[in-house]
Amino acid sequence: MTTAALYWISTGLLSLLYLSSAFLYLTKGAWVRQTLAELNYPAPYLVPFMVVVKVLGPIAILSRVSMPLSDLAYAGIFFHLVLSASAHLGVHKPKGALPAIIGLALLATSFATQNAARETPSPYAPAAAEQHISTTERN
To answer: How far apart are alpha carbons 36 and 47 in whole angstroms?
Structure first.
């Protein structure tokens, strides 16, 4: 499998995970609020904010309107997934952490392979970092 295909598959699955989660937040609001309350989160305030974030994050990554915005979306999604997994593990519900762990694997794959598939490279992706290091070592 080519690196570009790996990027598009992982990014597509990550976006699908986030968009389906936003859809779940909209359609099963009472259940989501109850689940978030069990995790000790302020559900009434958090749910509307998370719906917006779960839609805009994948849009920023897929559209790549701005490279800094795309990199910020990767960082935001990373922190969201780590906090989500931690919250579920903290209340001893490891099954609830599974989507976040899968999301982290997809996110890492997408981030690491993005420069192979996109025209504008991210300066923070691993391949770009390696190239920068090798260029500065030659000088």
So the answer is: 9
**CA–CA separation, 72 and 106 (whole Å):** 16
User: Tokens standing for 119?
Assistant: 């025209």
Nearest to 53 by CA among 73, 33, 30: 73
| Helix residue ranges, H only, 28-66 | 29-38, 43-63
DSSP state of 40: T
Q: Tens digits of per-residue pLDDT, 84-116?
A: 999 889 888 889 899 999 999 999 999 999 988
- Cα 132 to chain centroid, rounded: 25
Check: CB of residue 122 under 8 Å from CB of residue 112: no
What does the alpha-carbon distance between residue 8 and residue 28 come to, in Å, rounded to a whole number?
Answer: 29
For 20-71, write each residue's pLDDT tens digit. 999 999 999 899 999 888 888 888 888 899 999 999 999 999 999 999 999 9
| Buried-exposed string 35-64: b where 16+ CB fall within 10 A, e elsewhere | ebeebebebeebbeebbebbbebbbbbeeb
**What is d(CA 136, CA 102) in angstroms, rounded to the nearest whole number?**
36
